[in-house]
Amino acid sequence: MGSELIYRGSETQPSSDSYSPKPVKPWASVTRTIHYLLREQRLLFVFVGIAIATLIFTVFPTSPAPYVAPHSRFTTLIPDSITYFPIETQQKFSSAHRLGFGSANPTSKIPLGLKRKGLRIVVTGGAGFVGSHLVDRLIARGDSVIVVDNFFTGRKQNVMHHFGNPNFELIRHDVVEPLLLEVDQIYHLACPASPVHYKFNPVKTIISFILLQNLITGLAKRVGARFLLTSTSEVYGDPLQHPQKETYWGNVNPIGVRSCYDEGKRTAETLTMDYHRGAGVEVRIARIFNTYGPRMCIDDGRVVSNFVAQAIRKEPLTVYGDGKQTRSFQYVSDLVEGLMRLMEGEHIGPFNLGNPGEFTMLELAEVVQETIDPNAKIEFRPNTEDDPHKRKPDISRAKELLGWEPKVSLRKGLPLMVSDFRQRIFGDHKEGSNTNNASSS
After folding, report:
1. Catalytic annotation on 261?
2. Which of 93, 145, 309, 335 lies at a 20 to 30 A Cα distance from 320?
3. Domains in the chain, ordered, with CATH?
4. Which tens digit of pLDDT belongs to each residue from 29-47?
């Protein structure tokens, strides 16, 4: 059978003259992105990256750029100074930094892997009795310390063991004159504290308190440093309140032989608070009660140093009046701890820093007899003018807000002081070296 070719021209399909692409589907870009993320677990890696970044910025927060003062790049020579040194502006530490990086606050903790950055600190009167012990603690903590002292009552021997330490500088300077430095904190301890010394030139004593504004405006206000004033229990005068609280305004004779010191310290507290309220200066105020320990001036007229020196020299212990006046005595290491906690804390004060253990002068003489010479005699003399009859601190505020209270009793602290006095009076270097080690601890 033959094949048949059939041609149907009329049935052929019409061809289109133009090309038409596939229509665009809605949400195509969104679906492509989702498909891309879902393939090969890419979405999981995105979430892991976000979690890592969040953890890094939480543990290591970014810090603002350090503040550079306009006076930072220069070298200053302080009048009457014994050293030239460059002034390098430090970043001003915030309160959180002060509390969190190795401060005296016992609740402070250094974050793991981070090292505390030392502060730059001025201690006026740093070559004196209390000041030199404070310098020891600050240097041991890793701070850079500048001691400013005119050596009226201070002694270079008190800080000589720091000579050669790059974190220590010593300037001979009177704080009534302006002082240009770049620092983070100022401990102001420069003042003759014993009656023998502040009565030597009473006019200069009270003027030094009035010119305290030079120190506050020249340092604390200009560079934003925190300023701690060491006031005294003498602001309470011959108190009518017992024990004395910080809210007590005192009973001071404004024209007495001790008023150059009593009223001078009250004036210093006034100036300090006025600069805080009017100029925004960060301040702290400590009211120090009777303190004793190694490095006290041997013949400064204060009762503990008098009794100890007299007993060592086999002289009678001189008791003024009937010996029933009371005082409280704190060891110097307790005071230093309180000052550092106050500086690092967030409370202005004033705070009483003293040992509430109360002794009459006769009881103190008996403790000195037990410690040094049981055969020491007691000699009574007429009482001095404006001598307070009672003195005992109420330290409940310091306990509550600073977590501070004294630890060293009179019977434990007195032998350390006796060893230091023996070394300085008789040159017993062996006992003196033991004393230095004990006081450092």
Report:
1. yes
2. 335
3. 81-290+331-356+390-408 (3.40.50.720)
4. 667 766 766 666 666 777 8
